[in-house]
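User: Hey, quick favor. My workstation is busy. Could you predict this chain's structure for me?
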Amino acid sequence: MTDLKNIRNFSIVAHIDHGKSTLADRLIQETNTVAERDMKAQMLDSMDIERERGITIKANTVRIDYVADNGETYVLNLIDTPGHVDFAYEVSRSMRAVEGSLLVVDSTQGVEAQTLANVYHAIDADHEIVPVLNKIDLPATDCDAVAAQIEDVIGIDASEALRVSAKSGVGIRETLEAIVQKLPAPEGDVDAPLKAMLVDSWYDSYLGVIVLVRVIDGQMRKNDRLRFMSNDTIHQIDRIGVFRPQMENVDVLGPGELGFITASIKQVRDTRVGDTITSEKKGTDTPLDGFKPAQPVVFCGLFPVDSSQFEDLRDAIDKLALNDASFSHEMETSAALGFGFRCGFLGLLHLEVIRDRIEREYDIELITTAPSVVYHVHMRDGTMEELHNPADMPDLTHVDHLQEPRIKATILVPDDYLGDVLKLCQDRRGVQLDLTYAGSRAMVVYDLPLNEVVFDFYDRLKSVTKGYASFDYVLTGYQQDNLVKMSVLVNDEPVDALSMMVHRDRAEQRGRAMVEKLKDLIPRHMFKIPIQAAIGGKVIARETLSAMRKDVTAKCYGGDATRKRKLLDKQKAGKKKMRQFGKVDIPQEAFISALKMDG
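Assistant: No problem, here it is.
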């Protein structure tokens, strides 16, 4: 067990692509934690999807031994966190397990929206923050300007900011020294009753559930019997160890240490993230504060393409939900799609990642319905219902008014693109709250309806600013607006998966765009298909998909015109009958493409 004063627990926070994972790689390499032959880029990103997309999705930990210049050996526990706004919950959770943060800022790009968001998580957790200016080997680097920007925008003293190049390894030794000198040691009492925080848990097919813990007080050893306080279950430790990044068994974990335990836990739902773990006999009575649960903001339905895979899907979703506390789910059925789940996510990237993981890791093909947000439906009798799926909209005669969620969006954008960004926000029914300058870039703050942001706001923002804008948002609450449910009918049949809530002033424009798009996306059938958008009983837009035509008169040559007429009438009658009983197949791609509105 390590002496408390020689432990440092810290996380690396930064905007997307500012070099968190690369810096973690260099720290691991500099301290010879991993043999040179086993070293690879993005060492801590273990999922295929993370390596493929080049992003961090799960916060990962590693324990590093470092011999400082003063000759003492320090144990450094590092957590590499995600940068994307959709995984902010993962960041705030990791912050609670450590005492300090390295704030990495790209010295060519400066402070971005997620830099601010993530540094606020660190400040909320009372962290000591060490600024690090990365990418100093690039020709466009401007360390002095970026240091001044950190002081102006965030208000942290950056006069002694470390200057490093995580790619080439410049300044890594200085970074390790700064971690030891500037970050505080953890506090804790080895003789107090055991109190440990459950930071994360995931399922392993060989070991059962693996639990990542941060010990606050007391110590845990192999074969100890532990009590999980939130659901009062008792488990006996089988293995106890630390990540270097591979698992390594140890005899004991003491105060201030981060490590893992396995205890033959079969169900991930027994290990709630943020729970307090204590010993069965001499346990503590006061649990830790835990984390406030994440509020999902985007909902969509996930259905298996092959309905016999429903049980496999249930199993896959249960396992993912254990490991990702910000993902919620409940069962639902749909007339067109059969049995599936209504799932809640923190954003569209989160939705894509979960969908990809289910398809890859569990080999289940999925149909995803239109993403939607949660509306508050206020009834005439004074009650309020939450509406997750526009298809479940109650009868309008009982509804008094609807409220939609609003967000406060912070966008950092170079001056040249400011006009385009303001226009984009106005088009999405935004209200400007603030416009200030951080160096040469404008910082725009807007109040926007979340349902306008959910679909493709981020993509549009990136395209109008050539990728230079950065965006972050927080939910602010609910506000009443003139919202209506728009249904889409194909061949006079309503398609549940495409119904959506829209603002009444925008309904016709949205409806027209939707039916025009579907006309291009639905393949032609042997009969003509009307595609309509309607509000209640009123059709607001219509397109007709013409039929594939077989030339039935090809075999007629010369002779009486009535023969041709007879054949054409027979074909017409057949098509009419087909249209009555014919089933229209809408391909999965059509659902997804139809929802990206402003293409």
